[in-house]
Sequence to fold (283 residues):
Amino acid sequence: MKKAAEQKETPQYWQQTDKSVKRLKAEFSKLLDQNLTEQNYQLFMEENTRLVPREFVQNHGIHSSLVLRKLGFGADYKSDFVYLSKSSDDWNCVLIEIERPGAKFFKTGTNDLHPDFLKALQQINKWRAWFNSAANKSSFAESTVGLIRVPLERNPIYPKFVLVHGRRSEYGKNHLRRSIISAQEKDDFKILTFDSLLESLESKNDLYLGVRKNEYIDLRSDAFLSESIFAWMPPDQIRVGTKFRANALKMRAQWCHFKPCGGKVMDVALAQVRRRPKKKKAS
Fold:
């Protein structure tokens, strides 16, 4: 007879993760020390969404545990990551721009801002200028993120901006440099280093990684992390893969959202969601 202490409890579905915090920190730290392209860090963060910044998160958390990748807006702009966070009164829409760990803040041997940093700041300023147009902001709220901005869709939305740039070692021990960087921040804008993404990972859960399509949100994640998106969005506006469906069904005993007319939300959702076609095996 096995002792109770030897029996492992099944983790809650929102606690599902592919790797330990220790392993994630080790892998990302090693990656930061390599001189790779921005796309390498983008892909690693997409595969390990606990690394996505949690700035401007309101009391309801990250909405539907969903972060969108490469979300386009306007004619020329695209944010590396975007998520929504709501309170009872309004929404924050957090747009994240990531650069490279090797991108510089300052010119060598001076306290003058480096062209890498100036270019990144200019990108954020262009985004802010675009959102300053009431028409652009309304179109973004109603169309670009309208599918996921439910419920409380009548509440106002406020864009917030996050820049992930460089390494802390470039300025961490220099009070003047820290002050110069801090002076670039605003109430709607935060600047982070790649090192800061490794902080407090123990308190962060993974997120669904989604792609905004014309008629639906394509969930690229295989792990089942939250029922919320299925409770609020029509199932035909969500697409999932075969592995996701299988993993969701494994957690059926933990489903806790019910339809007003009876029955579990996930039973209905999984029967009606769009299915991502299986990849064809190379011949």
In short: The helical segments are 21-32, 38-47, 115-131, 134-144, 175-182, 228-232, 242-250, 265-272. The mean pLDDT is 93. The chain has two domains: 15-203, 213-275. Residues 213-275 form one domain.
